[in-house]
């Protein structure tokens, strides 16, 4: 197992090794990063750069597991999929766990009162009442999900919707069971 953690730039990168000491080292590094890292407010996520970096460093065919909300600019969508294609070209198998808070981020299921929505990467703010924008928002998010699904299918990338409220155990169990049946 190897690990790359990134935000606006690669924060930690460790090559693949297959021993218990290496796994313990990676877990310790993750715990340390989680304890120190604050949200990356005002910084763009360097997804494209990180994916190209992984493609350059991973020389053996690997399983690349990406956990992301995929909320990068639509303008950069082509660049993101070019970077994913770089991984596919190198014969890597890719699984994209699309991490969301379904209730809040996809369904916009919020209390009936005005909110100030803040983009955590750019700091841009929008004031809105959920009831007034809910239908248009849900439609836009459904179109975005459909586009993501089509692109992942086109590039032969496994796409898994990962709702943070569901927990990781049922999600992984379902996914691994499904994947085991395919092979």
Protein traits:
183 residues, alpha/beta, 2 domains, two-stranded antiparallel sheet, three-stranded parallel sheet, single chain
The gist of it:
The protein has 183 residues and is an alpha/beta fold.
Write the layout of secondary structure elements.
Elements: E1 3-6, E2 10-14, H1 20-36, H2 47-57, E3 63-68, H3 77-89, E4 93-100, H4 102-106, E5 115-118, E6 125-128, H5 130-154, E7 158-163, H6 168-182
Parallel strand pairs: 3-4, 4-7
Antiparallel strand pairs: 1-2, 5-6
Helix pairs in contact: 2-3
End-to-end distance: 21 Å
- Main sheet characteristics: 3 strands, parallel
Spans with pLDDT under 50 lasting ≥5 residues? none
Helix content: 40-55%
Instruction: Name the beta content range.
Output: 15-25%
> What is the H-and-E element order?
EEHHEHEHEEHEH
Radius of gyration based on Cα positions: 18 Å
Q: Calculate the mean pLDDT score and round it.
A: 85
Structural class: alpha/beta
Can you offer a commentary on this structure?
It contains six helices and seven strands. With 183 residues, it is of the alpha/beta class. It folds into two domains: 38 residues; 144 residues, no CATH class. β1 and β2 form a beta hairpin. The chain is globular, with a radius of gyration of 18 Å. The model has no long low-confidence stretch (mean pLDDT 85).
């Amino acid at each position: 197992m190897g690990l790359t953690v990134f935000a606006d730039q690669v924060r930690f990168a460790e090559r693949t090794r297959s021993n218990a000491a290496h796994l313990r080292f990676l877990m310790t590094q993750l715990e340390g990063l989680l304890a120190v890292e604050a949200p990356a407010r005002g910084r763009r996520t360097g997804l494209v750069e990180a994916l190209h970096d992984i493609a350059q460093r991973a020389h053996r065919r690997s399983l690349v597991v990406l956990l992301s909300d995929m909320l990068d600019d639509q303008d950069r969508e082509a660049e993101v999929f070019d970077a994913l294609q770089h991984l596919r070209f190198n014969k890597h198998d890719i699984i994209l766990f699309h991490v969301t808070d379904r209730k809040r981020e996809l369904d916009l299921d919020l209390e009936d009162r005005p909110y100030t929505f803040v983009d955590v990467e750019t700091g841009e703010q929008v004031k809105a009442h959920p009831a007034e924008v809910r239908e248009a928002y849900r439609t836009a998010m459904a179109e975005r999900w459909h586009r993501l699904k089509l692109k992942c299918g086109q590039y032969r990338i496994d796409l898994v919707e990962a709702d943070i409220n569901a927990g990781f155990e049922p999600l992984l169990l379902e996914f691994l069971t499904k994947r085991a049946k395919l092979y």
